[in-house]
Q: What sequence folds into this?
């Protein structure tokens, strides 16, 4: 089987995002794995000005109805170079019979199509035929497609069908673990591309903007004047709680590894977060502005009191 393939999540109602793509697919299209991940399984980023609108609609319809699709399509590489491809989309079901993944394989048939077109031109010259319009050209293209299948490529269709038997993919080589992750995933693991996580990230972004405005304001205009009370103390505490909850969520949120695989294992997620963004998030979650508001000044391991005396105790508010 060809190594040019992608896997897409069939359980997402919008777009069916790509969760894995092979190295062969990246070499064929010129796109990197990072550019392909989370794009639609319909691969509209490969279509160009000469792509058939009817084919695009047929691909969308097959994905929505979760049925198999196979046809020859004109695609464009990242460098805008045209190439012909035999696209085969196969829905993959789990033990319950639900479609959980789409396996889309891409076979480069540019050379075969070029030979077929040359043979048709020779036949036209021999019979004295002349192109009469786009309708005739479309008919000739369909005829060459039939000849291509009859010439010996039709038998590959049965070999390329993937059957899910006891969570094992037939002869598919080196597929990522994501194919069975849906059954093994813990209920307490958050998907990094889920709607909830997207909404939560927006909430954290708004909280970050809030801190960026209120902290300088409180320092400049309120300061340590005992006669002034901070009206934003409650909201500041709420924001700090949000940041702490965000750290907890990050310990349970999936991520994409360097190889393009979606990681669901809780231990790997914790190690990845601890070695990347944990220290930065922890420093950002510390309530420095609240400590300043309550006039807590940490020096070494003690607390500085107004008269300058330092006590070797844990930091506490005056």
A:
């Amino acid at each position: 089987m060809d190594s040019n393939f992608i896997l897409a999540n069939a359980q997402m109602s919008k777009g069916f995002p790509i969760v894995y793509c092979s190295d062969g697919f990246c070499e064929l299209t010129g796109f990197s794995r990072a550019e392909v991940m989370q794009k639609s399984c319909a691969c509209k980023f490969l279509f160009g000005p000469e792509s058939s609108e009817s084919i695009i609609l047929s691909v969308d319809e097959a994905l929505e109805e979760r049925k198999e699709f196979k046809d020859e399509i004109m695609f464009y590489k990242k460098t805008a170079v045209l190439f012909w491809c035999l696209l085969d989309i196969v829905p993959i079901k789990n033990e319950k019979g639900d479609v959980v993944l789409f396996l889309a394989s891409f076979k480069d048939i540019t050379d075969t199509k070029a030979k077929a077109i040359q043979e048709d031109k020779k036949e036209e010259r021999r019979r004295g035929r002349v192109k009469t319009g786009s309708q005739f050209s479309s008919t000739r293209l369909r005829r060459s497609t039939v000849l291509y299948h009859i010439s010996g490529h039709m038998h590959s269709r049965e070999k390329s069908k993937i059957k899910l038997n006891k969570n094992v993919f037939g002869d598919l080589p080196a597929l990522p673990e994501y194919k069975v992750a849906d059954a093994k995933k813990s209920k307490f693991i958050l998907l990094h591309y889920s709607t909830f996580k997207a909404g939560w990230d927006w909430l954290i972004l708004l909280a970050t903007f809030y801190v960026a405005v209120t902290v300088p304001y409180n320092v400049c205009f309120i300061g340590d004047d005992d006669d002034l009370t901070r009206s934003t103390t409650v909201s500041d505490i709420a924001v700090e709680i949000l940041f702490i909850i965000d750290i907890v969520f990050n310990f349970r949120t999936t991520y994409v590894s360097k190889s393009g695989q979606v990681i669901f294992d809780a231990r790997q997620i914790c190690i990845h977060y601890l070695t990347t963004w944990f220290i930065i998030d922890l420093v950002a979650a510390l309530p420095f502005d609240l400590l300043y508001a309550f006039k807590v000044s940490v020096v070494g391991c003690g607390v500085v009191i107004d008269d300058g005396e330092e006590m070797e105790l844990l930091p506490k508010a005056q």
